[in-house]
Amino acid sequence: VIAVSPKIIEISSDISINEGGNVSLTCIATGRPDPTITWRHISPKAVGFISEDEYLEITGITREQSGEYECSASNDVAAPVVQRVKVTVNYPPYISDAKSTGVPVGQKGILLCEASAVPSANFQWYKDDKRLVEGQKGLKVENKDFFSKLTFFNVSEQDYGNYTCVASNQLGNTNASMILYGPGAVHDGNSGAWR
């Protein structure tokens, strides 16, 4: 019997899938003796192999299961051969942090809205029901992949009030409200209002 080192001849392409969907990955290898195929998730939390078969099935995939999956083909003739498939799991935005903040008149104030989402969220800011646009006098909106920052360079009485951050992507949107308030403002626990 001629020994032949393993070779992966077919492997699934990188895929993008919405959270909750089903994923089926395939890894076909040749060699003599027939190689053993194993799949593992390359992740800090992953433990050992998740499949000892050419096929890896994941039903109802979660965002924690995104990342790279490695197929390994081994038959003791030579070192195992490995290849990876990238699985991207899309999910709607989730706002993880949005705090009200108190700033005296004349000072610089910042409202921050943090959101995780795949694809990255688009952010919009509203005061009451009015959309704030970049370049409004005394305001700066800075959007990054995971957060949006609304900066007031010189807070005036008119700036105080309720602000809403809206984070959206193709899968949905969510919003959070926060308040820019002045010194001495008291939060009324009963009504939830600031005065």
TrEMBL record:
It is found in: Cell membrane. PANTHER family: IGLON FAMILY OF IMMUNOGLOBULIN SUPERFAMILY-RELATED, NEUROTRIMIN. The lineage of its organism: Eukaryota, Metazoa, Chordata, Craniata, Vertebrata. It holds the Pfam family ig. It is a lipid-anchor; GPI-anchor. One of its GO terms (cellular component) is plasma membrane. GO terms for biological process: cell adhesion. This is Protein CEPU-1. Its main location: membrane. Gene3D superfamilies: Immunoglobulins.
